[in-house]
Amino acid sequence: MSVQYRSSGGTAAATGVTPLSGTVPAGGYYLVQQGAGAGGTEALPTPDATGTINMSGSAFTVWLAQGTTALNPGTGSVTSAPGVVDLLGVNGNTFETTRTGGLSNATSASRTSPDGDVNVAEFTIGAPDPRNSSSTGGGTDPQPQEATIAEIQGDGFTSPLVGSEVVTSGVVTAVPRFLYGFYLQTPGTGGEGTRTSSDGVFVYFPQGSGSIAVEPGDHVQVTGDVAEYAGQTQVVSSQAEVVELSEPAEPVTAYAGAWPASDAEKEALEGMLFDPTGERFTVTNTYSTNQYGEVGLALGDTPLIQPTEVADAQDLAEHRPGPGGCRGDLHRAGGADPGRLAQQPDVPLPADHLGERPGLHHDRAGGLREHPHRGSRGGRGRPERGVVQRAQLLHHAR
Q1: Could you identify which of 95, 149, 171, 363 might form a hypothetical disulfide with 395, taking C-beta atoms 3.0 to 4.6 angstroms apart as the criterion?
Q2: Is residue 256 part of a domain?
């Protein structure tokens, strides 16, 4: 066997191969030392194998391979490449289901869960703790950190708890189709006029993590790892880590304030219920309707325009965002997704119905993305003909 390595953007076979020998008992450790960094080093425990690979300290792909021939596992999500026993993608182009975040010279990605082919759920970023075959373990496993949803979201554009295992609780507000998860919001929140951090978060179930058994209105406790995906904070969890609570919870209120115009205002409502009944939206494109079931929306009574419709493509001044530029209305953009209309293309999408029922979720990326949600327990609702079902996710590209 061998440990094989390539850069975070590599697409060819491994650029470094370190042969391994010996055995590793269940629950044991095996330390492989690679090339020393240029910024100073600290002595490792005696390594079980030594290589000369100069690994990046922040982004890379590394895998355990059968044999010692340099392999090319491909790119993207790689869970069954021939000869690859296990693979870790750190902020790179190759990973198992979902990559981990970036590292630094002062951190490492340590396995904290059994191999399930989901990097972000199995590896925790923290202080290095190298162990060799003589190590007896690090004591008891660390307990998940208790955190409110607002603490998970933080007051910035990314969570301050990325890479941490947390336990939190809230009320399920939506279980959208095709998103493989559900939205959770702090009980009793949503009606506040001013806020700096969101009280809503998406709980994601990666492949192999079980069925989603919750329904809107359930009060649940969730354990999982905090991650960022496509600009959205999420808790990566599983069926076994979601527990329904018996105590009643205060109901969640849909935010009904002004349309969030700034990035900070969008971020403060990420994943929360949003009531759009005070706004009017115009269908601005149907480019992805048959493929993804999405309909582009614009706030107000006019569709969005392509910059080249009103300005020369070479006129950079006219293409600038903000007042006076033809990209100044980007804050109005969005998209409604009625649950993959490619599977039921005869269902019409009248924009006038979008504001009839509250229940959008806001994603700081910012516009409207509508997903039909589950109906009664055990079933899935079908959109009524002529009416877009209750919207569940607000998504706006900033």
Answers
A1: 363
A2: no
> What sign does the CA torsion over 261, 267, 268, 270 have?
positive
Residues 216 and 167 grouped into a single domain:
yes
Is 9 in a helix, a strand, or coil? coil
More confident residue, 84 or 318: 84
Q: Residue 340: what pLDDT?
A: 29
Closest C-alpha among 43, 46, 52 to residue 19: 52
Q: List pLDDT tens digits, range 3-30.
A: 999 999 999 999 999 999 988 887 788 9
What is the residue-averaged pLDDT of the chain? 77
DSSP line for 207-239: TTS------TT-EEEEEEEEEEETTEEEEE--G
Q: Are residues 126 and 224 in the same domain?
A: no
- pLDDT tens digits, one per residue of 205-220: 988 888 999 999 999 9
d(CA 348, CA 25): 60
Same domain flag for 2 and 131: yes
Q: CA–CA distance from 311 to each of 200, 333, 373, 377, 379 (Å)?
A: 40, 19, 41, 52, 50
Domain that includes residue 329, residue range = 263-395
Question: What's the pLDDT band for 395 if we cut at 50, 70, 90?
Answer: very low
The CA distance from 205 to 97, in Å, is 11
What is the C-alpha separation between 388 and 117, in angstroms, rounded?
37
**Per-residue pLDDT tens digits for 174-191:** 887 777 899 999 999 988
Q: What is the C-alpha to C-alpha distance for residues 1 and 67, in angstroms, rounded to an integer?
A: 4
How far, CA to CA in Å, does 374 sit from each of 122, 213, 232, 331, 384?
29, 11, 22, 30, 13
Q: Is residue 257 part of a domain?
A: no
The secondary element (H helix, E strand) that includes residue 264 is helix 263-267
Q: How far is residue 349's CA from residue 390's CA, in Å, rounded to a whole number?
A: 12
In this structure, what token pair is assigned to residue 323? 């007042």
- Do 324 and 373 share a domain, yes or no? yes
The pTM of the full predicted model, rounded to 2 decimals, is 0.54
Q: How far is Cα 203 from Cα 132, in angstroms, rounded to an integer?
A: 35
Determine the Cα–Cα distance for residues 128 and 162; give it in Å rounded to an integer: 17
